[in-house]
Amino acid sequence: MAQYAVLIYERVPAEELPKEIMDRHIGLPDRIAELGGKVTAGLALQPNETATAVRGDLVTDGPFVETKEVLAGVYLLEARDLDHALACAKLTPIVEGGVEVRPLVDFQVVPD
């Protein structure tokens, strides 16, 4: 199966998300499995204020670009194809925002 990153963008801070939305996030891997996909990893991100941006030699605190939606998390998804990945990603609970689905390029980590 192909691998995809599903980037979760949300306007509502994590601490303000309704309990039912958080519960749906927890149950997301099971709902995706019902469609024949598989979540292989998932990560929530700390708030934008904790970010440090690096652009060349410039290092700055906070996000590089002001946006209304912030990157709140990411999960890795195995799906048959892009259409299947999009169907699975649509199950992601969002209050105000959306998701972005990107195909991943395979690479191997070479041991030291």
UniProtKB/TrEMBL annotation:
It comes from the Bacteria. Pfam families: YCII. InterPro entries: Dimeric_a/b-barrel (IPR011008), YCII (IPR005545). Residues 3-107 form the YCII-related domain. Belongs to the YciI family. PANTHER family: BLL7171 PROTEIN, BLL7171 PROTEIN-RELATED. This is YciI family protein. It comes from Amycolatopsis nalaikhensis.
